[in-house]
TrEMBL record:
Monomer. This is Methionine aminopeptidase. It comes from Psychracetigena formicireducens. Belongs to the peptidase M24A family. Methionine aminopeptidase type 1 subfamily. Its cofactor is Co(2+); Zn(2+); Mn(2+); Fe(2+). Residues 12-239 form the Peptidase M24 domain.
């Protein structure tokens, strides 16, 4: 079942989306070499509260933080901790906010200080893949067109998509139907309809893209230790493509 949101529900999701965008932007500006990643989590909680929202990840299936901070070969679901951010690190921040019962979810990746140009290219290609994918979130298209366009861009650049995690529908719940893999699907249904809301989130690795889950039970890392990047937006399906609701 894929739900179609009413105008009022879309309005609330846009409010949640604006909070996600503002907070992610603030966190990105605030991130500095030498800082412990848990400082980002504390700041996120304060900001979300001040805007009248709730951290959507906190407590979701027992997830213990408001944000995910994934460094370098961590793909997703990195735990904020005492670990310091260092020059050359690739930092991914992932955040969900609930406002009046409705959610939005987004992620960004950026680098700290002087960074290997190949890592910079990985980040750029992943962000491009997100925008190429969300342009396909158009009324009348198949879900599979999102993933196949993402995968094509990533493969052409010589990188791999991570297949164990997928994008998802979103609304009252963080994860709703449909699943949105970042690769082409043999099953090409369902058709996209106006008013669906989707979180599209390419996760891209420099190497093969196989992952394992670390001992905290959450954090996904690449098996080959290669760097990974992750970008995500929540979008509204329209006749012209995905309308991003998690940007300012
Ligand atoms: N953007 C990720 C997702 O949609 C983050 C989820 S973290 C969790 O799966 F803790 F909430 F699971
Ligand atoms: Co998501």
């Amino acid at each position: 079942m894929v739900s179609i949101k009413s105008d009022e529900e879309i309005r609330l999701m846009k409010e949640a989306g604006r909070m996600v965008a503002v907070v992610l932007n603030e966190l990105k500006q605030f991130t500095q070499e030498g800082m412990a990643t848990q400082e980002l989590d504390e700041k996120a909680r304060r900001l979300i509260k001040s805007f009248g929202g709730k951290p959507a990840f906190l407590g979701y299936r027992g997830y213990p933080y408001a944000i995910c901070v994934s460094l370098n070969s961590e793909v997703v679901h990195g735990f904020p901790s005492e670990r310091s951010i260092m020059e050359g690190d690739i930092v991914s921040l992932d955040l969900g906010v609930e406002y009046d019962g409705f959610l939005a979810d987004a992620a960004v990746t950026f680098s700290i200080g002087k960074v290997d140009p190949e890592n910079q290219r990985l980040i750029k290609i992943t962000e491009e893949a997100l925008y190429i994918g969300l342009a396909q979130a158009k009324e009348g298209n198949y879900i599979g067109q999102i993933g196949s366009s993402i995968e094509e861009h990533v493969i052409k650049a010589g990188f791999s998509v991570v297949r164990e995690f997928v994008g998802h529908g979103i609304g009252k719940n963080l994860h709703e139907g449909p699943s949105i893999p970042n690769y082409s699907l043999p099953i090409t249904t369902p058709l996209l309809k106006k008013g669906m809301t989707l979180a599209i989130e390419p996760m891209v690795a420099y190497g093969k893209g196989d992952i394992y889950i670390t001992s905290n039970g959450w954090t996904a890392k690449t098996k080959d230790g290669s760097m990974a990047a992750h970008f995500e937006h929540t979008v509204l399906v329209t006749p012209r493509g995905g309308e991003v609701i998690t940007s300012i």
